[in-house]
Write a structure and sequence with these properties.
This protein folds into 2 domains: 32 residues; 98 residues, Rossmann fold, CATH 3.40.50. The chain has 6 helices and 2 strands, in the order αααααβαβ. The protein has a two-stranded parallel ribbon with strand order 1-2. The radius of gyration is 16 Å and the shape is globular. GO terms for molecular function: ATP binding; tryptophan-tRNA ligase activity. Its EC number is 6.1.1.2.
Length: 135
C-alpha cells in the first residue's frame, strides 16, 4: 500500500520468488505465479468492494494501527486492502486458509463477504475456514 520505485519493486518480486524456491516450493508440483499479472484479482476486489461497507473496514485494528503510523491520514489502498485479500482468497474458491492471529479478522471479513455475495447472487463462493498454527 506504499508507493515503491519500479526498480525496487521488480527486485522485490525476484527476491521473494527466490526465497519461495529456497524454502523448497517445487514449481513442478504447484502453481507459482505473479499475482499482479492476473487481472481478476483487482476485478474481483472491485466487485467485492462494492458489497463491503466502509464502517466495517474502519473498525479493523490493522487500519487503526497503520493509519496512526501514517500521521492519521491513511490511504484508500490501505483501507481497502482487506477487500483485496478477500478477493485473493475467494477468487480461487479456497476452503481453508492458513492465517496468523493478526489476520483472523481479515479472514472473517472474507467469510462475511462470501456469505453476503452468496445470499445476493446464489451459492458461488465457499466460505473459507481459518487454519491457525500454534507456532
Amino acid at each position: 500500500t506504499m508507493p515503491k520505485e519500479p526498480a525496487v519493486l521488480r527486485q522485490n518480486i525476484l527476491d521473494t520468488t527466490a526465497a519461495i524456491l529456497a524454502c523448497g516450493i517445487d514449481p513442478e508440483k504447484c502453481f507459482l505465479f505473479r499475482q499482479s499479472l492476473v487481472p481478476e484479482h483487482a476485478e474481483l476486489a472491485w466487485i467485492l468492494g462494492c458489497l463491503t461497507n466502509v464502517p466495517r473496514l474502519l473498525r479493523l485494528p490493522q487500519w487503526k494501527m497503520k493509519r496512526a503510523s501514517q500521521n492519521s491520514e491513511g490511504t484508500v489502498g490501505l483501507l481497502t486492502y482487506p477487500v483485496l485479500q478477500a478477493a485473493d482468497i475467494l477468487l480461487y474458491k479456497s476452503t481453508h486458509v492458513p492465517v496468523g492471529e493478526d489476520q483472523v479478522l481479515h479472514l472473517e471479513l472474507a467469510q462475511d463477504i462470501a456469505q453476503h455475495f452468496n445470499k445476493k447472487y446464489g451459492e458461488f463462493f465457499p466460505v473459507p475456514k481459518a487454519i491457525l498454527s500454534e507456532l
